[in-house]
Design a protein that fits this description.
There is one protein chain. Strand 3 and strand 4 form a beta hairpin. About 30% of the residues lie in helices and about 25% in strands. The protein folds into two domains: about 190 residues, 2-Layer Sandwich (Fructose-1,6-Bisphosphatase, Chain A, domain 1), CATH 3.30.540; about 130 residues, 3-Layer(aba) Sandwich (D-Maltodextrin-Binding Protein, domain 2). The strands form three sheets. An eight-stranded mixed β-sheet has the order 4-3-5-6-7-8-9-10, sandwiched between helices. Helix 2 runs antiparallel to helix 3 and helix 5 crosses helix 8. The chain has about 325 residues and is an alpha+beta fold. It binds 2,5-anhydro-1,6-di-O-phosphono-D-mannitol and magnesium ion.
């Protein structure tokens, strides 16, 4: 592994990246430090009282686990005070989080899922933090509004995730490729381990919660049937891999190639528009996958082109290798015709 840290890498590529200003570097540094703090706590999950439910439910009616709250608090507290943001939005909070009066403001907006896949914590499965960064669109001297935040994913200036797995990694993009860094616990730094990640054009893996088969529409069923058919165009049966932890499923498919689907479960009253959130999950991963040569759609439309109407909007997500996502799109278009 190289000895190049995230910030060294960012500074080195600064000339190529117009938004790599001192302020962005500060924002990324705070994200890195927050990730390290969350990682420490995640590693101790089995040992301390922190494991388990708090008994509360979050804004979307889901049970909140203590580590979710901890991760949310670390990110909210540190980034609110970093002097580089004008607003934050978290999967765990219904409303925009603004900057306390006594703290300096910046022009960036951070949207995050503090601990994705947290229902897996008890089973020691990989979980992660996902983040998306925008610049406000209104003038700096005016109060920030929801309209500043509700931007299409194509406007993101950076996106990334931290995965707390068998090793801890940070994967991020500023629009100049995707780079992966592995936390070296002996020095406490994320070091460049996966420069310029390219996802294979097609894969051998499909990832979907097939338990929902009877909720899926015909096109989704046809697509999954295609991947399982030895007589498909590629004459290749895909393997089924589904962790149930988006960051972990996405990360594996990014590296190995493959496709992840969380479609709209039309007959499921819980997920009529899919389960995943456009702004804190789909958008950042879509930017990453596109930067790595892959594709992300809602089945038909490019995720990054969707204009969000609300902060916690859900969206069907089909994401991964370019050819595999395109194949699903063909099934969807044929059925829509
Ligand atoms: P969370 O953000 O509340 O953890 O929920 C999102 C998670 C994703 O990590 C994962 O892809 C999905 O929920 C799994 O859902 P399901 O159990 O319905 O397959
Ligand atoms: Mg999540």
């Amino acid at each position: 592994m190289s000895q190049i840290t995230v910030i060294e890498h960012l500074l080195y590529h600064q000339k190529e990246s117009p938004m790599a200003t001192g302020r962005f570097t500060r924002l990324l540094s705070e994200m890195i430090l927050s990730g390290k703090i969350i990682n420490q706590e995640v590693n101790k999950a089995g040992l301390v009282e922190i494991l388990g439910l708090t008994g509360e439910t979050n804004v979307q009616g889901e049970k909140v686990r203590k580590l979710d709250e901890f991760a949310n608090h670390v990110l909210e507290h540190r980034l609110q005070r970093a002097g580089v943001l004008c607003a934050l939005a978290s999967e765990e909070k219904a409303d925009l989080i603004t900057i306390p009066k006594d703290y300096p403001q910046g022009d960036y907006i951070l949207i995050f899922d503090p601990l994705d896949g947290s229902s897996n914590i008890d089973a020691n499965v990989s979980i992660g933090t996902i983040f998306s960064i925008f610049r406000r669109t209104s003038p700096s001297h005016e109060p920030v509004t929801l309209a500043d935040v509700l931007q299409r994913g194509a406007e993101q200036v950076a996106a990334g995730y931290m995965i707390y797995g068998s090793s801890t990694m940070l994967v991020y993009t500023t629009g100049n490729g995707v780079h992966g860094f592995t936390l070296d616990p002996s020095v406490g730094e994320f070091l460049l381990s996966h420069p310029d990640i390219r996802t294979p054009k097609f894969g051998k893996i499909y990832s979907a919660n097939e338990g929902y088969w009877h909720y899926w529409d015909e096109a989704t069923r046809k697509a999954i049937t295609y991947f399982k058919n030895p007589d498909n165009e590629r004459h290749q049966v895909y393997s089924s891999r589904y962790i149930g932890s988006l960051v972990a499923d996405f990360h594996r498919n990014l590296l190995y190639g493959g496709i992840f689907l969380y479609p709209a479960d039309k007959r499921d009253p819980k997920h009529p528009h899919g389960k995943l959130r456009l702004m804190c999950e789909a958008n950042p991963l879509a930017m990453i996958v596109e930067q790595a040569g892959g594709l992300a759609t809602d089945g038909i439309n490019r995720i990054l082109d969707i204009q969000p109407a609300e902060l916690h909007q859900r969206v069907p997500l089909v994401i991964g290798s370019y050819d595999d996502v395109s194949r699903v799109r063909e099934f969807m278009l044929r059925d829509a015709a």
